[in-house]
Design goal:
The structure is a single chain. By secondary structure, this protein is of the alpha+beta class. It has 3 helices and 8 strands; from the N terminus they run αββββββααββ. It has one domain. Helices cover 23% and strands 36% of the residues. The strands form 2 sheets. A 5-stranded mixed barrel has the order 1-2-3-6-5. A hairpin with a 5-residue loop joins strand 3 and strand 4.
Length: 126
């Protein structure tokens, strides 16, 4: 019985660090920017007033869902998507190695004119 418990704990200890370092895959519609969270729904996106969509999904650097209320007052470097109404729908708070992936489009026009390799998570300018 104790051996089974030991094996379970040892397995969890080995898997947890590997899961934390897993590369996240962003959609081709994800743009790069900076947000300042003013309230649970109001933000500044790249210096302009914007809003979170109802049901926004904010993922922290460990890819865990964060409540918008916990982010009030913070300035964050993020990848984000916009819904059809122009509201911020998905947000990924970037880790340093993700922020270093450059170039990354910051406008829809750039995303449409550049090419994206989804597997490598790399954008290429024309």
């Amino acid at each position: 019985m104790y051996r089974c418990l030991f094996v379970a704990i040892a397995t969890a200890a080995l898997v947890a660090p590997a899961a934390a370092q897993m590369q996240r895959h962003f959609p081709a519609t994800a743009l790069r920017g900076a947000i300042v969270v003013s309230s649970t729904s109001e933000i500044k996106l790249n210096g302009r007033a914007a809003q979170f969509a109802p049901g926004v999904r904010v993922r922290d650097q460990s890819n865990m869902i964060q409540l918008t209320g916990a982010l009030v007052g913070q300035r964050l470097r993020v990848n984000y998507t916009i819904d059809t109404s122009g509201l911020v729908k998905d947000v990924w708070i970037l880790r340093p190695e993700e922020e270093a992936m450059w170039p990354w489009p910051s406008t829809p026009e750039q995303a449409q004119s550049w090419s994206f390799d989804h597997g490598a998570q790399v954008w290429t300018k024309p």
